[in-house]
DNA sequence: TGAATTCCTACTAATTTTGTAGTAAAATAC
DNA sequence: GTATTTTACTACAAAATTAGTAGGAATTCA
């Protein structure tokens, strides 16, 4: 039951970008140094965020990234779903398990996923920045 | 973000034992056949359950396992914690991260774990058997 | 032109998950 | 008291996923 480094580092990228100033262009090199993460690995994660248009890239010298939206407009459930692939605690929830009907445990996993989603859907990047993550 | 087969198969063992009748002694061979899971793998998982006294073993011919308690006395959060090791979505919550104080994301992960725990603490094995898992 | 940076593809290493194999020990049935 | 069935234990192995590297092409700025 783990959020991988992919999801955690993605969040760190978003937080770092926000903290440097919303319209500031920040290079991965700078983020890698501040967060003490391999820059090459961050590249791969930034690619995911960029592809989904969560961050905007500026290529070339003095280039880097910045947030595409305001921090309050990023919802944690979506960010994690993007980087982790899914929030489903068991794969049968995702890929349409043929036995889903008769499966006695299915409601349990579905309920767990729903609860996680409900919690994470209430939290925005801004909340994380402010330290006002709801209990 | 996954519950592994270890946790899922452990639950299947518990469900199977309950369904065969509470005082019935059931061999892993029978469970393996019914649930279509390798018996050798089930052995390893049953060992965990046995060690924690979730199930009682009867060795020798006609031996097997049965539940140690009533189904309503098994709480899902505990069962999953036992087999999965932890419900913490990030390892820094478990092993006392030295940077926990200054970590801006810590409240998010802690909140997520608490929500998962709250949900799973309300559900017993009996609920799963009855199909009355709370929404 | 040179330096800094994103972008892209492929590869590799480490870790975890998911098992398997083999054998010992216990209990029962005969 | 022997054969059979079953759990208990230890060690190993295969597969999958996660995490990270390497190298270079394309882009932009100075």
Tell me what the structure shows.
The structure is a homodimer of 135-residue chains. The first copy, chain A, has 135 residues and is mainly α. The first copy, chain A, has a single domain (5-130), classed as Orthogonal Bundle (Arc Repressor Mutant, subunit A). Chain A contains six helices and two strands. The first copy, chain A, has helices at 5-19, 28-35, 39-51, 76-84, 106-121, 125-130, and strands spanning 55-58, 64-67. A two-stranded antiparallel ribbon of chain A has the order 1-2. In chain A, a hairpin with a 5-residue loop joins strand 1 and strand 2. The longest helix of chain A is centred in the C-terminal third of the chain and has 16 residues, at 106-121. The first copy, chain A, is elongated. Chain A starts with a helix and ends in a 5-residue tail after the last helix. The A-B interface holds A 1-3, 8, 11-12, 15, 76, 80, 84, 86-91, 104-105, 107-109, 111-112, 114-116, 119-120, 123, 128-129, 131, 133-135 and B 1-3, 8, 11-12, 15, 76, 80, 84, 86-91, 104-105, 107-109, 111-112, 114-116, 119-120, 123, 128-129, 131, 133-135. The first copy, chain A, binds a DNA duplex (30 and 30 nucleotides) through residues 4-6, 27-29, 38, 40-41, 43-44, 46-47, 50, 57-65.
Task: Chart the SSEs and their pairings.
2 copies of one chain form a homodimer.
Chain A: H1 5-19, H2 28-35, H3 39-51, E1 55-58, E2 64-67, H4 76-84, H5 106-121, H6 125-130
Antiparallel strand pairs in A: 1-2
The first copy, chain A, binds a DNA duplex (30 and 30 nucleotides) through residues 4-6, 27-29, 38, 40-41, 43-44, 46-47, 50, 57-65.
